[in-house]
Write a structure and sequence with these properties.
By secondary structure, the protein is mainly alpha-helical. Helix content is 91%, strand content 0%. Keywords: Membrane, Transmembrane, Transmembrane helix.
């Protein structure tokens, strides 16, 4: 009987690790897509010569850099 319980708990742990891995991959994909969408918006704003485009692009790039630093530190 205890072997069954141990097997069930190890199956549950494996399942949890798989779910966590899937979640991390999804979050990385979302960050990647979000980054490219933001950069595309900045390029479009720059193409239309908006006065506030350099300010927005500078803030986006700085937040992107901070996010990447935080992600690197997490690993």
């Amino acid at each position: 009987m205890p072997e069954e319980i141990q097997q069930d708990s190890s199956d549950w742990e494996i399942e949890e690790k798989q779910k966590q891995g899937e979640h991390e991959r999804t979050m990385e994909t979302m960050r990647f897509l979000g980054t490219w969408i933001l950069l595309l918006i900045v390029v479009i704003m720059s193409a239309f010569k908006q006065e506030w485009a350099p300010v927005v692009s500078a803030s986006l790039l700085s937040s992107l850099a901070v996010g990447m630093l935080g992600q690197g530190r997490k690993r």
